[in-house]
Amino acid sequence: xxxxGVFLNILDTPVIAVGTEKRLNLPAVFAAMxxxxxxxxxxxxxxxxPAWHMFCVQLAALALSKETxxxxxxxxxxxxxxxxxxxxxxxxxxPWCLVVDDPGKPAFMQxxxxxxxxxxxxxxxxxxxxxxxxxxxxxxxxxxxxSLPGDWLFALISLQTMEGYxxxxxxxxxxxxxxxxxxxxxxxxxxxxxxISADPASWWRRDLCVLLADRNGGDxxxxxxxxxxxxxxxxxxxxxxxLHPADLDPWFIEVCRxxxxxxxxxxxxxxx
Length: 272
Prior knowledge:
Layout: E1 6-9, E2 16-17, E3 23-24, H1 26-34, H2 49-64, H3 76-84, E4 97-100, H4 125-128, H5 149-162, H6 200-214, E5 229-231, E6 248-253, E7 261-263, E8 269-271
Parallel strand pairs: 5-6
Antiparallel strand pairs: 1-4, 2-3, 7-8
């Protein structure tokens, strides 16, 4: 539903494919995983799995971090309320919408436009993604011509939370020890039925509970501050400004690129 230039609110709109014909919104995904339902993220590409898993765990943990003795909710409406509490002051849920026409406001994984910047069009979600396909080896370039909103969602999360250094002015993410390094996911993952691969729901619940149990344990070497800024894409990004670790929550979700999605009159998503 579109309301005053706000489109594809992932708190309400089912854009995440969990089967060949089934899609859910984000709170419904969290509720289903909390109930232990088997979800196959059919639009998720292999290299995007770590980024999606870490994003979901961090976001859910942030949503529950202020609860006393938190239990993982199994209700979609409860998750929707908890996620909205992370973005107060945005009456139209702008930080959760894939497309927001007002460039001065954030959109999902898209910081506000500070103005005066040069923008470059990006044709497809796989062209936006962090995976380098310049030589057209293995994965081919710009094959996602008939993309859906969920494809852009996964590409945004992959780019903004995993990308490295990519030329002057294009710095990599903070959770990386060098511009040409990578963000590593190393952990225990409960196996799916048959033991061939990880079960997304069990894996998510396991890591979420580990984070919540460790919240009050503290780490004197951690430069971040519990309760600090968490969803970095909601913050202004003036040219030359930096965020300081002491102002950020240890589980903050970052963005490393200025990206804005738009919706054409035909209903197609375009990216700059």
